Amino acid sequence: MKQPLTIYLTIGLLTLYGVYSLFEGYMSGYWPYGLVGTIALLGSAGLYLSKPWSRFVIYLVAGGVAAAWLYETWIWAPQGNFLQRPVIETLLSFLPGIIILFLCGYCSHVVCSHFKKCNS
User: Fold this and answer.
1) What are 24-49's pLDDT values in tens digits?
2) Which structural domain range is residue 66 located in?
3) Other Cβ atoms closer than 10 A to 82
4) How many domains does the chain fold into?
5) Is 53 helix (H, G, I), strand (E, B) or coil?
6) Which residues are CB-neighbours of 115 under 8 A, at least 6 positions away?
7) Which of 31, 44, 65, 95 has the highest Cβ tally under 10 A?
């Protein structure tokens, strides 16, 4: 079965994130990054092969990335770190995180749509 372009985009994003996490884990010596990278690559490979279990792996990775960003933002906010800079600079500093949240939601939506079609 030919995969839609959105699936290949999702596979590419997950692979990119997995390789980045493995690299960061290796360079920093912090093994949880390597574990997350391995899980992302496993989900990416499973999605490429259209394995139904990959859906849950991708949900785990996307939810974990989104939760980690929201948690870090929540931790930094009460410390006044966002009040030390001009408002526009603070808003712009949130832009990469908001894009990451959007991509996590996008990947989850694409995978959900893909496997609903496959199961029906």
Assistant:
1) 999 999 999 999 999 999 999 999 99
2) 5-119
3) 16
4) 1
5) coil
6) 52, 55
7) 44
